[in-house]
């Protein structure tokens, strides 16, 4: 079913121009601090891991440094694993789940793999609890050359020297009620298209790569996370957010074709996690733990192969 959804910016059936983007930016309010919530946690990890600034977002009079955490004893002979969080800044457990993984689990992999963790790819959006960046662009549709998003371009520059060495990439996300109440209506308004309502799944699920499916890898993560929080069921069409459920809690997207973050390394094992923080059956603590457990299980599976 297609409906006309009210969105307070723009004219139906007409894509936004500069005036509409200005009006949209004027509505964005800073709700939290990247420096206090994220950078301070990264700083506390510096005595155990190497931390590098891999870029800086510059938006008008705002500057946000971008940080990555590396294994302390990086070994050029070892394969690499990339963990990313906060590609969509509003997806809170992606950020804090990545940091929790580093704090609680990462040292166990010393001498086994090189870990590279970018816990908050989109700090401007993190502060505003938003999906898009300052320019009204979705970074997770912008991992292509040339990228229109500063966030995506910076991350691609970070991983470029290591391409061919990654065995796994785990990209941490959330699906929230605000996807349906705010972000998808905004997307339709921005692009001058009709809004098509969908369903938000209640539970955790994964997105595998249509072009490189790894069902055993995905299932190992699902089994580990299911001990922490519930897995999203298929809807009455056998789908989750409009995609066929190919296994318990697993759907597939063509990652590279869509410009998704999980497609940037060319690793054999890739996944995008999707936590549902608005569920009455899940707490913020469970959401953060589910993300950390997903990363831990993913790397454990890879090392066992």
From TrEMBL:
Occurrences of domain Peptidase M14 (ranges): 30-305
CDD domains on file: M14_REP34-like
Entry superkingdom: Bacteria
Similarity-based family: Belongs to the peptidase M14 family.
Name this polypeptide is given: M14 family metallocarboxypeptidase
């Amino acid at each position: 079913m297609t409906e006309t959804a009210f969105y307070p910016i723009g004219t139906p059936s007409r894509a936004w121009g500069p005036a509409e983007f200005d009006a949209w930016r004027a509505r964005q309010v800073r709700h939290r601090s990247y420096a206090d919530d994220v950078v301070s946690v990264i700083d506390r990890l510096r005595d155990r891991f190497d931390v590098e600034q891999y870029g800086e977002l510059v938006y008008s009079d705002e500057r946000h440094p971008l940080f990555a955490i590396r294994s302390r004893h990086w070994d050029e002979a070892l394969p690499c694993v990339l963990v990313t969080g906060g590609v969509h800044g509003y997806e809170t457990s992606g950020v804090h789940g990545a940091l929790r993984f580093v704090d609680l689990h990462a040292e166990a992999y010393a001498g086994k793999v090189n870990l590279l963790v970018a816990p908050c790819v989109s700090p401007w959006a993190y502060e505003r609890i938003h999906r898009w960046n300052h320019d009204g662009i979705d970074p997770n549709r912008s991992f292509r050359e040339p990228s229109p998003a500063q966030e995506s371009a910076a991350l691609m520059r970070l991983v470029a020297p290591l391409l061919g060495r990654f065995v796994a990439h785990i990209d941490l996300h959330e699906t929230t009620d605000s996807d349906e109440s705010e972000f998808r209506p905004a997307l339709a308004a921005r692009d001058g298209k009709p809004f098509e309502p969908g369903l938000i799944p209640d539970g955790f699920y994964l997105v595998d790569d249509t072009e490189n499916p790894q069902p055993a890898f995905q299932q190992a993560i699902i089994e580990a996370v299911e001990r922490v929080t519930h897995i999203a069921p298929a809807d009455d069409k056998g789908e989750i957010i409009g995609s066929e459920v190919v296994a318990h809690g697993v759907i597939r997207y063509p990652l590279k074709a869509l410009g998704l973050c999980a497609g940037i390394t060319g690793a054999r094992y890739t996944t995008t996690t999707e936590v549902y923080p608005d569920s009455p059956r899940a707490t913020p603590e469970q959401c953060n733990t589910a993300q950390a457990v997903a990363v831990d299980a993913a790397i454990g599976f890879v090392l066992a192969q």
